[in-house]
Write a structure and sequence with these properties.
The protein is of the alpha/beta class. Helices cover 34% and strands 19% of the residues. The strands form two sheets. A five-stranded parallel β-sheet has the order 2-1-5-6-7, sandwiched between helices. Strand 5, helix 3 and strand 6 form a beta-alpha-beta unit. Helix 3 packs parallel to helix 4. The radius of gyration is 14 Å and the shape is globular. The termini are close together.
Length: 150
């Protein structure tokens, strides 16, 4: 279960990998990558099908990253997510955010069994200070309905 503490645990990391980052400006992963970077995070894109993302070197896997990351943001299909969380655990990554649509029961259970600080079923952009539209509207509605993590 996602809590405010688990969200803060991921967001407090200064270096994040974004798995599934895309060059396609119409994809959420592209916008999230750029937005996290603009908000001061050191963000490393991971996508085996890209050489660069937004002008930055892109890495084919978590193992290929040039430095240790504090957290992993996953924006992939659930079957890929399941492989990524296993790779993350083997590399000692302790903070994982499974963006909405990326999660699977198997990935969530694996993270829980391995003591990962996990955020699942939440949009990372809603939890940025002063989120842009439409994330600000999504946050307002979610919080107004009382469904924010405690």
């Amino acid at each position: 279960m996602t809590t405010r503490t688990s969200i803060e645990g991921v967001l407090s990391q200064k270096v994040l990998a974004v798995a599934g980052a895309s060059n396609n400006p119409n994809k959420f992963s592209h916008g999230a990558y750029k937005e996290l970077k603009a908000r001061g995070y050191r963000v490393l894109p991971v996508n085996p099908n890209a050489q660069t993302i937004d002008g930055d070197t892109c890495y084919a896997s978590l193992q290929a990253l040039p430095e240790k990351v504090g957290g992993l943001v996953v924006v992939t299909q659930p079957a890929v997510t399941e492989q990524l969380v296993q790779e993350a655990v083997s590399l000692g990554i302790k903070n994982i955010w499974l963006q909405q649509g990326s999660e699977s029961l198997e990935a969530v259970q694996f993270c829980q069994e391995h003591g990962i600080n996990l955020v699942s079923g939440e949009c990372i952009m809603m939890y940025q200070p002063h989120p842009s539209f439409p994330h600000s509207l999504h946050k307002f509605i979610k919080f107004a309905l009382g469904s924010k993590p405690k």
